[in-house]
Design a protein that fits this description.
215 residues, mainly alpha, Arc Repressor Mutant, subunit A, Tetracycline Repressor, domain 2, elongated
């Protein structure tokens, strides 16, 4: 019984910590980093300011945890397609591209949070480390999917070619994601993923035309 009680207390504590992170992300999305003060975070989370200091040594540490949470969640949402069975490697790559360019990954609030944090990446080594880790995780997964699609088509490339292709395709996805989050009303239904499929297909010399989404 004593062990069960300890487990319950730890779980409750984790929920409070997550509530602080969630409140931080919400405030940054709606008002920018300057809106996320210790006072406003605690009020939004419904806890005392002292509880923030219990979990985080400083507001900067809370921001770092919130940024890592946000970036990891977006990467996880895109990578979730990896847990689904696909008919072939090209279909798997297609599913990844579509996932990266549709909700919940493409989202106005998600873009606003990213924009609120991005200026901190260059001035804070911890923020930069998180950005680097999540960037490489996403790009490496994309490179593996490209490698498999090329191999399936009998067009295997060197690791250097795969790397350059992943860099180019990742940059294209980032640009479409940014515009989709900033100006969602500017695009027709499924326009972003179809542009992504056409453009990445051209870069990789892979025909996605029969895999496009209907408008």
């Amino acid at each position: 019984m004593q062990n069960a009680k300890r487990s319950f207390v730890r779980q409750a504590a984790d929920k409070r910590q997550q509530a602080l992170i969630k409140s931080t992300l919400h405030l940054i999305a709606t008002g920018g980093p300057e809106a996320a003060t210790v006072r406003t975070i605690s009020e939004h989370a419904g806890v005392t300011q002292g509880l923030i200091r219990h979990y985080f040594s400083s507001k900067d540490e809370l921001f770092i945890a919130a940024y890592e949470c946000h970036m990891t969640q977006m990467t996880d949402a895109t990578s979730a397609v990896a847990t689904t069975d696909h008919d072939n490697a090209v279909a798997h790559l297609k599913a990844f591209i579509i996932s990266a360019l549709t909700p919940p990954v493409v989202d106005t609030e998600a873009m606003a949070i990213w924009a609120g944090f991005i200026h901190m990446v260059q001035r804070d080594k911890n923020m930069r480390a998180i950005h680097e880790k999540t960037y490489y995780r996403f790009r490496d997964e994309l490179q593996a999917l490209i490698s498999a699609a090329w191999a399936e088509a009998g067009n295997a490339k060197s690791s250097a070619d795969e790397r350059r292709a992943a860099i180019a395709c990742n940059a294209l996805l980032d640009g479409l994601w940014l515009e989709g989050g900033a100006l969602p009303e500017s695009f027709e239904v499924n326009e972003l993923p179809n542009v992504g499929l056409n453009s990445i297909g051209a870069i990789l010399n892979i025909d996605f035309s029969n895999l496009e989404l209907s408008e």
